[in-house]
Amino acid sequence: MISKTGGKKSVSDGARRSSEPPLRLVLHVQHPEGGSPKILAAHLKPRLIMGRSSADTPVPIDIDLSPFDAMNTGVSRIHAAFHYFEGKLEIEDLESTNGTRINGFPLQPGKRYRLRVEDELECGRLQINVKVVRTPQA
After folding, report:
1. What does the pLDDT profile of the chain (138 residues) look like in tens digits?
2. Is residue 49 included in any domain, yes or no?
3. Which of 9, 86, 124, 131 has the fewest Cβ atoms within 10 angstroms?
4. Which residues have a Cβ under 8 Å from the Cβ of 45 and sit 6 or more positions away?
5. Comparing C-alpha atoms, which of 105, 90, 109, 107 is closest to residue 48?
């Protein structure tokens, strides 16, 4: 139920938000040497850490690129973070060794950059196309 209060709309009791299907982050990962892109998906939450998981990774990894030859393509253990808020998706390089780029533009570590439809993300030499989709309700 949406009510109008002082010219502003508010959602009462979270009723509307709970009825919407959840969002998923879908990554199409392309190895630099070619081949078919592989798909990886994760439930979208306010912050997702992307990198490659190993026994000595200091923080939990939400999006593990290890199965995509991440070590040999320059992906750091803790490479980047996706931030999702107010319907916007941003990426932040977390001081990765080989950098993160959007459409070839290198990102400054620690700074957030907005991702848009059709942007190509690169982590090291691994190419990734990013989409946000709604999970169909059962």
Report:
1. 333 344 443 333 343 455 666 899 999 998 888 888 899 999 999 999 999 988 877 789 999 999 999 999 999 999 999 999 998 999 999 999 999 999 999 999 999 999 998 899 999 999 999 998 887 765
2. yes
3. 86
4. 62, 84
5. 90
Computed from CA positions of residues 27, 125, 76, 70, in that sequence, does the dihedral angle turn out positive or negative? Answer: positive
Write down the pTM of the prediction. 0.80
Structure-block tokens of residue 94: 């977390």
**Number of domains into which the chain is organized:** 1
Residue 130 placed within a domain: yes
Query: What CATH number is given to the structural domain containing 98?
Result: 2.60.200.20
Contacts of 54 (CB under 8 A, 6+ apart): 66, 77
Which domain range does residue 44 map to? 22-134
Alpha carbons 23 and 135: distance in angstroms, whole number? 6
Separation between Cα atoms, residue 50 and residue 48, nearest integer Å: 6
